[in-house]
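Deliverable D4.2, example record:
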Amino acid sequence: MNYFLSPHAVLKSLEHPSVYHIKNDELYELDHESFAFLEQCSSASGCSAVDTGLAEYCTKENILVTSPVRLSRPKPCKSPEPSLRYLELQITDRCNLRCRHCYLGDTPNNELPITLIQKILAEFEALQGLRVLITGGEPLLHTDFDQINSMLPEFFIRKILFTNGLLLNKPLLQQLNVHEIQVSIDGLEKAHDLLRGENTFRRSMDAIKLSLDCGFDVSVSTMVHAKNLADFEEMESTFKDLGIKEWTVDIPCAAGRFLYNSEFHVDLVVSGKYLGYGYGGGLHEGSAGFGCGLHLMAVMADGRCAKCTFYSHRPLGTADEGLLTCWEKNHPVRLADLTCNCEHIESCRGGCRYRAELLGNAAGKDYYRCSFYDIVKT
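Output generated by the structure prediction step:
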């Protein structure tokens, strides 16, 4: 029997040889022998299995199929170390809302040109990237979004659209070339609308349900604020009942418009407790011994590259210079270099380093995370 690499799978040469199932968002580490076998299976003629146990497992996981697959996949080439696996791609900073917690504040309506977006995605794929988060602003407001959407199938990476959902409709969803849609829901109706604007909750929830009906994976992002503290139990139940893939809960940083909307601020000792909500693996996994962002970089709508969007004021370079050039200037956060040394350090990973810096604690604690672990701020 001949086996073929699934149309949803692609080989990635990361720190360890791997195969990535794009549709299921699963990364499998391999030994060199298994990697070589799957590389043979990625050819047009497929391959026969010597190790039937491996072939059966890969077939069960939909990494291998028995029907011919006619796809021209990129050949895996060794990634840099640490590998750049996750890319935040802010294609525009234009938005159709003026959310009271937005860290961007008022923006100059930048957007990345089509040619640069294509260059960025091609470089990210060549660097063995796994997932791109297409964000904004509101990414659907990009002048050439239709062209961007048309080019997305060229790239063997998982595409996630991060949107407020207000512009989603059935005709657009039927043409949308992404694997996952992430929508911001910041409380139940009253709390969400106070933060984002009247009637936005119902419209965003309708967009979530429509996206699910159209077959997309859907995830939700929620920010903790003073008006939604009583909503988390019901939100969790609602999201699980709907079949939401992942629910990410975080605390807004004191930046942008959030600085001027103090009625939404929550004491860190209180808000930190809400970081226990949420479920799923999260978008940006780390590794033992390192803080957040080990495999992450961001490209802003003006072309600047940074370790994440919060660090846009401290760019590593520009996308015109190339992703690899910028990535090589990024210095991973080593947990051993932090003054954090409690028993939770490996699970906490030092929390959000940008938030720690805002608290005047650049080499030490993100006190919001400390609150979650019942560690008193000192």
